[in-house]
Amino acid sequence: MRIDKEALIGLQKQLVHCYRVNYYPPRSKPDQVLGASPHSDNSTITILMQDNDVCGLHIKHSNEWVPVNPIPNSLVVIVSDVVEIWSNGKYKSIEHRAVANYNKARISYATFLIPHNEVEIELLDHMINPKTKQQIYKKVKYGEYLRSSMKRKMEGKAHINMAKVGTLA
């Protein structure tokens, strides 16, 4: 996005970290196992560490679900909704889901980097296309965006629509 580290932190005002551990038991009893429904994260970025030998993260690419096979000693960085708004849609938040494995339990560790609730999330000026001048997303307070997305729960990327120009909050 052509933005330096200090400016990025400044955009977030107070950087908030949320940490979550997810446990998915084996899916030998499918009716008893929940994964995570398709969604995009309402954070800035998500940093995920997966089990080294159990695949369960899938991302949506070209309307197909693609497994993200774990790579030992590595992290997965997921672009989230705030970056999509800042970049005017140039960098898309990633729709993803978690599925349980039939034979093995799976654990993942996620860190979410999020702005403070009072921070106004808006398009960065240099991300506007100089030819079209089209603005896809409007300015929105992060706390309002978070509350709206939590009401929708996990409905794919439907919750980011509330930040689009021409929609009601």
Automatic annotation (TrEMBL):
List the Pfam families hit by this protein, alphabetically: 2OG-FeII_Oxy
Signal peptide feature range: none
Looking at the keywords, is Metal-binding present? yes
In this protein, which residues make up the domain named Fe2OG dioxygenase?
Answer: 15-115
Q: Does the keyword Metal-binding apply?
A: yes
Output one GO MF annotation.
metal ion binding
Give the domain of life: Eukaryota
User: What does the UniProt keyword field contain?
Assistant: Iron, Metal-binding
Q: Which PANTHER family match?
A: OXOGLUTARATE/IRON-DEPENDENT DIOXYGENASE
User: In its UniProt entry, what is this protein called?
Assistant: E3 ubiquitin-protein ligase RING1-like
Organism classification, top ranks?
Eukaryota, Viridiplantae, Streptophyta, Embryophyta, Tracheophyta
